[in-house]
Design brief:
The complex is a heterotrimer of chains A (about 230), B (about 325) and C (about 300).
Chain A (H helix, E strand, L loop, with lengths): L1 E8 L8 E8 L4 E5 L6 H8 L7 E6 L2 E3 L8 H4 L2 E4 L3 H4 L6 H11 L6 H12 L3 H4 L8 H13 L5 E5 L7 H18 L2 E6 L2 H7 L2 E4 H14 L1
Parallel strand pairs in A: 3-8, 3-9, 6-7, 7-8
Antiparallel strand pairs in A: 1-2, 1-4, 4-5
Chain B lengths: L5 E13 L5 E13 L3 E5 L6 H9 L6 E9 L2 E2 L5 H8 L4 E4 L3 H4 L6 H12 L5 H14 L16 H13 L5 E5 L7 H17 L5 E6 L2 H7 L2 E6 L2 E7 H5 L7 H8 L54 H8 L1
Parallel strand pairs in B: 3-8, 3-9, 6-7, 7-8
Antiparallel strand pairs in B: 1-2, 1-4, 4-5, 9-10
Chain C lengths: L1 H9 L6 E2 L2 H26 L1 H4 L31 H37 L1 H16 L2 H10 L5 H28 L2 H8 L4 H37 L11 H13 L4 H28 L1 H7 L2
Helix pairs in contact in C: 2-4, 2-11, 4-5, 4-7, 4-9, 4-10, 4-11, 5-7, 6-7, 7-9, 9-10, 9-11, 10-11
The chains are: A alpha/beta (about 230), B alpha/beta (about 325), C mainly alpha (about 300).
Subunit structure (chain B): The complex is composed of two ATP-binding proteins (NikD and NikE), two transmembrane proteins (NikB and NikC) and a solute-binding protein (NikA).
EC number (chain B): 7.2.2.11
Pfam families (chain B): ABC_tran (PF00005), oligo_HPY (PF08352)
Chain lengths: ~230, ~325, ~300
């Protein structure tokens, strides 16, 4: 269970991006979070993936309350999430070849043995050829790079996937391909998914249920007014 | 097809990039198409298929390692051979307006929208004098549905949608016969996409028979909303040129690639085309789509010409599709 | 119809038109000139002294203050020493001081800036206040203060220049680290289980090294000027050493008497190599600019 309760978060002290937002994702469930760009839904996704400490509110991950974020969070908690971002160019270290990009989490967690096999297996899953694996990010297209970023997110077999506008920059065919990879992985492992996006058609097709950002913040405001 | 005069006529346009080590990347190969007055042509394809390079070629904005061949006639002027001076003085803004991919990067961050609009009006039209420039700028803003009371704001004070309208207003000032929109909807959410393309459509229609729009996009829903005709690009070549209504409705696209693209949409089959597009630096001799195509056979080892509307040895026929549905 | 056109485009005889050959040529010219001058400087400094068995200190009072001539291309100074030889040796000393100081300053600046940027919080605030405090004192004044504490020599000058120049590197590196730190790829690394140390060493540091190296190269001319200024004031290298600053300093008197060559040539020896180094660094900066890279690709 991924349970976000009354989260308030932002980047400057007194001006949070949003207040009192609550959202729950059950194990194995796929939840779509729909909202216009710049509304703060990406910030919520980062809070959920333990990448941004909220100002207030609680996050309960599989029954355990989360108290620390980013590097302070225990590694086992951090790596329970696979994260894919909107812009592949910015989410890939420009100096790493795609193989190293995908294998990086394995190395960071000291699981070097068998990493070559795991990378090869994932590359096949996301549809990257051996030739592409040897290249650096500036030598491949956005779509190919996003495939590598998805492989990196899956390499540690996370229990939760957070896809923040994963397909916003991609064409229809690559979008369908990446969504299929995510769904195949979820079917095999029972992982939960939080998919953030602005395309209702896509999220409705992809996810078990789609939550409107305005509904989340709207109820929060209504609750505040009732108090 | 109608008999209206073409505003832009592209004939055999090819672009090559010379890479270090003598490699040649075939970014665009032998593109033939026309954009007619009062018409909107959507050029669609995956990222990296060469469509942005084609736009850069039309605007004379190719990097130093590029080579071009063929011609792109805008009126009597060949955009590919025109020198920088001609392009700067008579083409950009006056004959061809550009609606940019990211308006935030296209607008000057330190000046208000009003001052940028006035500067453009002064540069592109004979309007002179403070009061005249002011009202001309306001008229230009109104044409792009940009709220006049936001004119004194700086670009960072505008939402994404308003910034897009400001950029559109700038593109429309010169009343250019050709509007070129390069991925104008990237990163916008669905409502904004719809509003942006509706506005572009309105400008084409408002110009009567005088204006034409070439929109380059990977967003099929946006293309469906705005286009009269569709050009599909794959691996640097235009593989299908079709009427938009027939393409998105019945009988549907004829090229297997176009069909695959549409079937990948979440409101259709949502199935991806298998495999990856080929490298533009190492294209196969025959049909570039053959390795991913379920209809491919030996005939596909020969490059299919764009005959009529489709470049394929085994195109879907209008009739088979109708029969399938029946 | 279309078929023939398609064949035509691929025919070897297709008329290809090239783009952008014009603006590239001035850029290349600048790059080549700079590279040639830098090569010449390095050659003069490394190769000439051991090869030419001439004594730069050789005094010839009979030939003092001779204007440039075939025998002495740069003329002679007030005790008849050959100025060309003195300039080459002076450049050698100045360059040594400049490189040593720039390297020291870069190492210190990168370490401090990277630590401030990567750790953030109170470490960042404290470090940046120290940097501000240092920057608020004029460089030359601070430099003079440091040199004055030691006996004249090469190392006090190196320390003085390094201690006044690491500030800008620290600022550049910190800013670069801060901008890299907010990129999603750092988020991805954190999510992938990378430790703080691993993020700093594997992802942040390699990203700032090109910038730091560029800053180091640009600092060499700066440090040379600083050394010359200190020597000119009589506070830098001991006066018997032929540094460029010392040469100009000792030529002051003759300049007033109308003898221009003892001032001009050492001056040129400072200006020309520094401009050349700056030109090379500028070309390099264009190279590592990621926008240019993406321009060349599709």
């Amino acid at each position: 269970m991924l349970d976000l309760r009354a989260i308030t978060a932002g980047y400057t002290r007194n001006a949070p991006v949003f207040r009192d937002v609550s959202l729950t994702v059950a194990p194995g469930e796929a939840v779509g979070l729909l909202g216009p760009s710049g509304c703060g839904k990406s910030t919520l996704a980062r809070v959920a993936a333990l990448l941004h400490r909220p100002e207030s509110g609680t996050l309960v991950l599989d029954g355990e309350p989360v108290r620390r974020w980013r590097h302070r969070a225990p590694r086992a908690q951090r790596t329970a999430f696979g994260v894919v971002f909107q812009q592949p160019r910015l989410s890939a270290d420009p100096r790493l070849r795609l193989t190293d990009l995908i294998a990086e989490p394995l190395r960071a967690t000291g699981r070097r043995e068998g990493s070559a096999d795991r990378v090869a297996e994932l590359a096949a899953t996301v549809g990257l050829t051996a030739d592409l694996l040897g290249r650096r990010p500036h030598e491949v297209s956005d779509g190919q790079l996003q495939r590598a970023c998805l492989a990196r997110a899956l390499v540690l077999r996370p229990r939760w996937l957070v896809c923040d506008e994963m397909t916003a920059m991609l064409d229809a065919s690559t979008t369908a391909a990446l969504v299929r990879v995510v769904e195949d992985y979820r079917a095999a492992t029972g992982a939960g998914l939080l998919a953030v996006g602005h395309d209702r058609t896509l999220l409705d097709r992809w996810c078990d249920r789609t939550v409107d950002w305005t509904a989340l913040t709207g109820t929060a405001l209504a609750a505040e007014a009732a108090r | 097809m109608t008999e209206r005069a073409p505003v832009l006529s592209v004939r055999g346009l090819s672009v090559r990039f010379l890479m270090p080590g003598g490699r040649r990347v075939a970014a665009v190969t032998d593109a033939h198409f026309e954009v007619r007055a009062g018409e909107c042509l959507a050029l669609i394809g995956e990222s990296g298929c060469g469509k942005s390079v084609l736009a850069s070629a039309l605007l004379g904005l190719l990097p130093g390692n590029a080579q071009t061949a063929g011609s792109a006639l805008l009126g009597d002027l060949d955009l590919l051979t025109a020198d920088e001076r001609t392009l700067a003085r008579t083409v950009r803004g006056r004959l061809a307006g550009l609606v940019p991919q990211s308006p935030a990067a296209h607008l000057t961050p330190v000046r208000t929208i009003r001052s940028q609009l006035q500067e453009t009006v002064a540069a592109l039209t004979p309007t002179r004098g403070r009061a005249a420039l002011r009202s001309a700028a306001e008229a230009a803003a109104e044409r792009a549905a940009f709220p006049v009371d936001h004119l004194d704001r700086h670009p960072h004070e505008l939402s994404g949608g308003l910034a897009q309208r400001a950029a559109t207003a700038l593109a429309l000032v010169g009343d250019a016969p050709l509007l070129l929109a390069d991925e104008p909807t990237t990163g916008l959410d669905r409502d904004l996409v719809d509003r942006t393309v509706d506005e572009l459509r309105r400008h084409v229609d408002a110009g009567g028979e005088g204006r034409a729009l070439l929109m380059i996009t990977h967003d099929l829903a946006a293309a469906e909303r705005i286009a009269d005709r569709v050009a599909v690009m794959y691996a640097g070549r235009i593989v299908e040129l079709a009427d938009a209504a027939a393409f998105f409705g019945t009988p549907g696209p004829r090229h297997p690639y176009s069909r695959g693209l549409l079937q990948a949409l979440p409101d259709r089959a949502f199935t991806p085309i298998p495999g990856l597009p080929p490298e533009l630096g190492a294209l196969p001799d025959g049909c570039a789509f053959a390795p991913r195509c379920d209809r491919a056979n030996d005939a596909c080892a020969v490059l299919p010409p764009l005959s009529g509307t489709v470049a394929c040895h085994h195109p879907h026929a209008a009739l088979t599709e109708a029969a399938d549905r029946a | 119809m279309a078929e023939t056109a398609a064949e035509k485009a691929e025919r070897p005889g297709t008329a290809w038109r090239s783009y952008g050959a014009k603006h590239r040529s001035t850029r290349t010219l600048r790059l080549r000139t700079s590279a040639a001058l830098v090569a010449l400087t390095v050659l003069a400094v490394l190769v000439v002294p051991p090869l030419v068995q001439l004594d730069q200190q050789a005094v010839d009072l009979a030939a003092k203050l001779r204007p440039p001539s075939p025998e002495h291309p740069f003329g002679t100074d007030d005790v008849g020493r050959d100025l060309l030889l003195r300039c080459v040796y002076g450049l050698r000393v100045s360059l040594l001081v400049g490189v040593a100081a720039a390297l020291t300053a870069t190492v210190v600046g990168t370490a401090v800036g990277a630590a401030a940027g990567a750790l953030g919080g109170w470490v960042d605030r404290a470090v940046m206040r120290v940097v501000d405090a240092f920057s608020s004192v004029p460089h030359l004044l601070l430099g003079i203060f440091i040199v004055a504490m030691f006996r004249p020599g090469v190392w006090p000058v190196v320390v003085s220049v390094a201690l006044t120049h690491w500030l800008s590197t620290a600022r550049i590196v910190r800013a670069e680290v801060l901008s890299l730190r907010s990129r999603p790829f750092i988020d991805a690394a954190v999510s992938g289980g990378a430790s703080r140390w691993r993020v700093a060493v594997r992802h942040l540091l390699p990203g700032v090294l090109p910038q730091a190296a560029l800053a180091a190269v640009l600092m060499v001319p700066h440090a040379m000027w600083h050394e010359s200024a200190l020597s000119f004031l009589g506070l830098g290298l001991p006066t018997h050493m032929a540094s460029l600053g010392n040469l100009i300093q000792s030529a002051r008197g003759s300049l007033l008497a109308g003898q221009w060559w003892p001032t001009l040539f050492p001056g040129l020896f400072i200006i020309v190599p520094t401009l050349a180094v700056a030109g090379l660094a500028g070309a390099w900066r264009e190279r590592i600019n990621p926008r240019r890279r993406s321009e060349l690709m599709l």
